[in-house]
Amino acid sequence: MNKRELVETVADSTGLAKSETEAVVDAVVGEISKALAGGDKVSLAGFGTFEVRERAARTGRNPQTGESMDISASRSAGFKPASALKQALNG
Asked: Polar residues bias: where (predicted)?
């Protein structure tokens, strides 16, 4: 499901106009992104938790040349599903 399909599905289930629904979806995604950029966790009961995960600097290998290279530390977004979501996925 992509964003357009999500907007259509939510608009159909809520009775809101697609333009209003798209604004809501954009706002939710924007607020989650802002919270993560600020280092906060975002927990949605019954769905899961979004959090920032730190990756330490490390040495890797260039797969084409085999040469060692330094990979700098980075931050990425992670998601941990809630048990209710896991149960819904696994029957």
From this structure: 61-75
Show the tokens assigned to 42.
């975002």
Contact 36, 77 (CB under 8 A): yes
CA distance 59 to 62: 10
The Cα 39–Cα 53 span in angstroms is 9
Going from the C-alpha of 18 to that of each of 3, 9, 22, 28, 32, the distances in angstroms are 12, 9, 6, 15, 21
Count of C-beta atoms within a 10 Å radius of residue 21: 20
Q: Count the neighbouring beta carbons within 10 Å of the beta carbon of residue 7.
A: 20
pLDDT tens-digit readout, 14-71:
999 999 999 999 999 999 999 999 999 999 999 999 999 999 999 999 999 999 999 9
The two structure tokens encoding residue 48: 């899961």
A 10 A CB-CB count for 88 gives 12
Q: Would you state the structure tokens that stand for residue 47, as one six-digit string?
A: 């769905």
